[in-house]
C-alpha cells in the first residue's frame, strides 16, 4: 500500500499517506504478483466494448449480493453495483455525436485513458467506491468476471438492515451530508472514512434505494452525462457529492431495499 500512498491507521482504517517509491517498497509490492506502477493506455471505444462484454457476463443478483458483502466481509464488493449500473445499458445507448454514447468516456488525454490497473483494484480492495471516471469501472467489471464476486454473510445482511433502518428514520429534507454523518455516528460499517461512506451511499442511490428526482438511478436506464451535469448544476450545493446521491432528500424505496435484504 505504501507504494501507492496508503497506510493503515492505529484504528484499523486506511488513509492517504506520502508515497514511498524506494527499491525496498517496490520489491515488497511486486511480491504479490501484480504489475506495480504500470500504466496502460486504453482507447475510449475499447473501454466501451470491453465494459459491455463484462457487464453482460455478470448476474445482476450476484452484483447486488456483492454490494451487501461490501458492507463488512468484503469491501471490494462496494464498487460493482456502480460499475455495472453504468455499463448495463451501454449496448443500446444512442449515439448522437461522435462514435460513443454520452457515457463519460470522452478522451481526457488526447485520445486515450491512462489506467494503473493494480492501483484501481487496490482501491477497490480497500473499500473506496465512486461514480466518476467510468474508465476506472473496467478493471472492476473484468475482475468481477474473471474472479467472481463475494457473497454476503449473515453479519453483512444485518449491517444492511441496520443501514436501511437508519436511512428510513431520517426526517424529510435530510441531505446526503447529514446522512453520512448519521451513518458515521452509528458506526454501522466500521473502519470507514467519510468518502468510503459516501461511496456506500452512492451505491444505494445508483440502484435506486435512495430516491432522487433527477437524473435517477443508473440501474433503470442509460443516463447520459448531459443529464447528470444538468442535475448537478441545477441546485446541487455540494460539488464533492455526486448525483444521484446529491439529489436525495430523505426516504427509502422499500421495494428496492427489500430486494437487497432478500439476498
Distance between the termini: 32 Å
* Main structural class: mainly alpha
Order of helices and strands: EEHEHHHEHHHHHHH
- What count of structural domains? 3
Radius of gyration: 18 Å
The percent range for helix content is 40-55%
Question: How many H/I helices?
Answer: 11
Name the average pLDDT: 88
Shape assignment? globular
Q: Proportion of β residues?
A: under 5%
Numbering strands along the chain, what is their spatial order in the largest sheet? 1-2
Strand runs, count = 4
Question: Which regions have little confidence, pLDDT < 50, spanning 5+ residues?
Answer: none
Largest sheet: 2 strands, antiparallel
What layout of secondary structure does this protein have?
Blueprint (H helix, E strand, L loop, with lengths): L5 E3 L5 E3 L6 H8 L9 E3 L1 H13 L3 H10 L10 H8 L25 E3 L1 H9 L11 H11 L6 H15 L7 H11 L7 H14 L17 H9 L20 H8 L2
Antiparallel strand pairs: 1-2, 3-4
Helix pairs in contact: 2-6, 4-6, 8-9
